[in-house]
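Please check this chain.
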Amino acid sequence: MSDMETIDKKINQSANDHLDSLEKSLKDMDFDSIKSEINEMLEDCSLDELKKVAKILVTIAKKSFQDE
């Protein structure tokens, strides 16, 4: 494995560790902290990924109307 591959692997592992930690701490985070994390994650999304997120949010919004 080259030095660049080793560095890439470490960066990816660090990012995955951060996401795992974030997922575990969601229940203890306040609204503004969660919203801030989401906004940071959205900045890194491609257009296709943003479309998927938007579809999820639309589904959630529709469900909330059905529940009322």
About this structure: The mean pLDDT is 93. The helical segments are 3-25, 31-43, 47-67. The CA atoms of residues 31 and 37 lie 10 Å apart. Residues 3-67 form one domain.
